[in-house]
């Protein structure tokens, strides 16, 4: 478990498993994920046509089995309204498909899955109440939900559900998060030691190879688990940060988010004597933006899934600003966006007080480069539609 040093804000977390700690920033504060996931929502909405194509490939339950619920899972749901919106979209689309075949509409069940540290309380507060007056009335009401809901805490790199129990798996903006920072990246004696950096953008080849290996191992474990849990005829829709460059040291939008102003802010803390260089070097963002080839290699090696669609999709900027010419607003937007997804890890590593100092410097630096950020900070996503072989 975590230990405290002489300074109560200097928390050592190297011996604390990432999956027990990693989460988007919970609650409803200014830097919370709930209030800073609009960009993810916009990106998800821009891909709805691809999601619906995947749903059109799902095998419908035969009329003789209409007492069996149709089961949907969001893997890496986090705690914002985006996951609720997506589940609504999936349920409504599948209800219409059942309607067109004159089959009785089954009951729907949705599982919201994320790591145990996720703020499930905030998520559940966003769920509309379940209607109790029958499915037809429920579906006709905008103020009630048309499915049974439950939260499932656990890592999606392992089994989470009974065999052959899930019709649709959905996962967006989560699979680029690794199960751990590769050990060699934090080993001073190893050539992959990421000295002077907190991310792999621009790092040496050995470091990026370690990250790629970790990503592909994690994705292989993910696919093995889902291949056992998915019903025959089910489908899976996956979205994760990706890159267009073949060079893994160029992490694209993720690199601009974590590897420039964020990196420089850590260096500021070192130069100002607020943290040691070793403290900085022991912090690495466990994110890897794969190329489409990185992703494809793992799916094909696994052999359990047919690739129905695999593409790189331009998602747009992670920054949501009302006045792009307002440099202060752009700087603030970048700092808050960065904190909403990495703040929990930062605070665990250096404490909340130094975390405040760090993100203040991120904001200052981003404000000075606001025009460049507006023009160049774009996310690309790997989008995959898979079904069992």
Describe this structure in words.
Helix 3 links the parallel strand 3 (70-75) and strand 4. The chain is built from 13 helices and 9 strands. It has a domain at 31-58 and 66-246 and 284-317 and 378-388: 3-Layer(aba) Sandwich (Rossmann fold), CATH 3.40.50. It has helices spanning 38-46, 48-56, 81-100, 120-126, 135-140, 205-229, 252-258, 261-271, 277-281, 292-302, 327-350, 352-368, 370-376; strands at 3-4, 11-12, 70-75, 108-114, 148-153, 166-172, 230-242, 305-316, 379-388. 41% of the residues lie in helices and 17% in strands. The model is unreliable at 1-16 and 135-141 (pLDDT under 50). The protein starts with a strand and ends with a strand. The chain is α/β, with parallel strands linked by helices. The strands form 2 sheets. It has a 7-stranded mixed beta sheet with strand order 5-4-3-6-7-9-8, sandwiched between helices. The longest helix is centred in the middle third of the chain and has 25 residues, at 205-229. The relative contact order is 0.15.
């Amino acid at each position: 478990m975590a230990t405290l040093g002489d300074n109560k804000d200097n928390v050592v977390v190297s011996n604390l498993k990432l999956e027990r700690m990693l989460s988007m920033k919970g609650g409803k504060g200014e830097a919370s994920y709930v209030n800073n996931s609009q960009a993810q929502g916009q990106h998800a909405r821009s891909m709805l046509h691809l999601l619906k194509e995947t749903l059109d490939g799902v095998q419908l339950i035969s009329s003789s089995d209409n007492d069996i619920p149709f089961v949907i899972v969001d893997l890496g749901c986090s705690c914002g309204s985006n996951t609720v919106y997506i589940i609504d979209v999936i349920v409504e689309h599948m209800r219409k498909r059942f309607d067109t075949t004159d089959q009785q509409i089954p009951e729907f069940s949705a599982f919201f899955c994320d790591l145990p540290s996720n703020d499930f309380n905030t998520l559940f507060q966003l769920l509309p109440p379940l209607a109790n007056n029958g499915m037809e009335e429920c579906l006709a009401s905008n103020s009630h939900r048309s499915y049974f809901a439950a939260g499932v805490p656990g890592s999606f790199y392992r089994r989470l559900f009974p065999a052959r129990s899930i019709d649709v798996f959905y996962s967006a903006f989560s699979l680029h998060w690794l199960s751990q920072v590769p050990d060699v990246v934090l080993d001073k004696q190893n050539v992959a030691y990421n000295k002077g950096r907190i991310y792999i953008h621009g790092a040496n080849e050995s470091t990026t190879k370690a990250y790629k290996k970790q990503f592909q191992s994690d994705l292989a474990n993910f696919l093995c688990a889902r291949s056992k849990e998915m019903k025959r005829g089910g489908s899976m829709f996956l979205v994760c940060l990706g890159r267009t460059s073949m060079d893994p040291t160029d992490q694209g939008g993720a690199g601009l988010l974590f590897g420039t102003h964020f990196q420089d802010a850590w260096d500021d803390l070192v130069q100002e004597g607020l943290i040691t260089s070793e403290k900085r070097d022991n912090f690495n963002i466990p994110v890897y933006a794969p190329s489409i080839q990185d992703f494809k290699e793992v799916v094909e090696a696994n052999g359990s899934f047919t690739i129905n669609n695999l593409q790189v999709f331009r998602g747009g900027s992670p920054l949501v600003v009302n006045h792009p010419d307002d440099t202060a607003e752009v700087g603030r937007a970048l700092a808050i966006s960065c904190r909403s997804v990495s703040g929990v890890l930062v605070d665990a590593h250096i404490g909340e007080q130094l975390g405040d100092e760090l993100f203040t410097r991120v904001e200052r630096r981003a404000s000075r480069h606001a025009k460049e950020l507006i023009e160049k900070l774009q996310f690309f996503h790997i989008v995959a539609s898979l079904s069992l072989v």
